[in-house]
Task: structure prediction
Amino acid sequence: MKTNYQSYMKSLQNHFTEEAWRQFQAYLRNLVDTLEEANISQEQADHTLEGIKEYILGYATELPNQQQISFHQALTLIEEIGSPQEIIRELNPTITTDNEQTKFCPECGAKMPLNDIYCKSCGKNTTIPSRTFSPVKQWIIDRPNTAGMILSFGLAMVATIIVGILILIGISRGAEISIQMDFGFVLLACLFLAAVGMAIGWIINSLYGDYISFRKRYEQVAEFFEERYLSGQILFVIGLWIYGIYGIMYRNNITNSYDGNPAAAFIFLLAPLYLILILGLNPSPSSDEFTYYQLLKLRGKSSQQVSTRLLDFNKIAVAVIIILAFSWHLFLFPKAEQTAWFAVPGYVIGILALAMVNGLYYSYQYSWRHLRKVNINL
Amino acid sequence: MAAKKRDYTSYIGRSLSDLLILGLLQEEEDLSGYLIIKKIRKISEGSIKFRAGTIYPRIEKLYDKGLLTKSVVDETSNGNDAVRQTSTYSLSKLGLQRLQEKSMEWYFLQHKIATILPPMEELQ
Result:
């Protein structure tokens, strides 16, 4: 379709309150997907979307004092505009669609019967605007070759995990690691960490949320990558990389002891310092285009503070675990000759830590909706 | 017995939708799609509720067929100086001709249907 969704969505967003926009955006997403599935001509789809825009703007024009469209008004508007199935039936009567009156969950965009209160997918009460749910991020409009990206990502992840497991098995059975191999070993181990963490996050997401249901939810997959990398995992890998380089230097007798060696002390401190700096200064754009900084955003000014704090929790946890891992390693292996196996405990801890943090973070982030559902039902 | 007040929109097919749009635009010129939907809803006392998602493609089709004319006008929001452009529609000559033809057909059909159905006074 020719419609530029980015400017289309932007032109509408300002007329809605945050909660209302989330609801309406979910509806629009579903409508566009349905139009695409039904092979509606570009011209017809454009007319439909332009018509909806006109209708919304006409509605907003009538609101007094530049009021924004509220959540309940958005629900009414969606009903007035019609479900995607009704629209498809009008545009192409040869297409048979189910007659059930549907609406769309404002949280996850799942289709649900009009009269249902709770979304079966995420548990949100769709009749009560809530300020406690994480925001739906900006819709990824252009949709690059996401399927190819997912495939290559998945293959790389599986391959890395296999290689990592083989290396760990080799080490546990007494394989020698030469000095020349260390660099590659550190690289592989770091990749292994990232891959395991991602795999665990992926599985947990699949179990607890619909964000990683790949079919027709590419924008959420993109969000998955974004969150994964921006929420500290890459920093975690970088920290371990520095840890590994420090270990190699130590092992090669660049430094004979940690105490009193400024270069080694500097490298040792570099990783957490780097983490703190990056975590503190890295700006994070939010869905309402309000950019905030990691350390400053602890006081959230909107409903996004909940998910924001989860991200903070994750990053702080990663930083603490890295520092603990360094301390633990230095405590156990203070001498240069004892560092031949320096990587193994560090990496084991790293893997477990990353898995735990990922698991905690994602299971918490995605299962809290389910917990909330339980609370509501109680 | 009076008919129940409910939404009869599903009874309205494409041709009747077109007829209603043309009929409304004969009464009032330069209406936006939004106002067409609102006015039909109001006049029918809520019995006919056109969906915005379906009615705009119909209006555009009528325009493509030359039954409507379109003009773009500036519109301001309540309490807001911001101006936005919106399309308004009026009946063309061809549209008026089609309205008359289709109205005749509709009344004819309505009369025929009435001869088949039981008389109103027999309904309880």
Remarks:
- DSSP finds eleven helices and four strands in chain A.
- The mean pLDDT of chain A is 57.
- The beta strands of chain A are 102-104, 111-113, 283-285, 291-293.
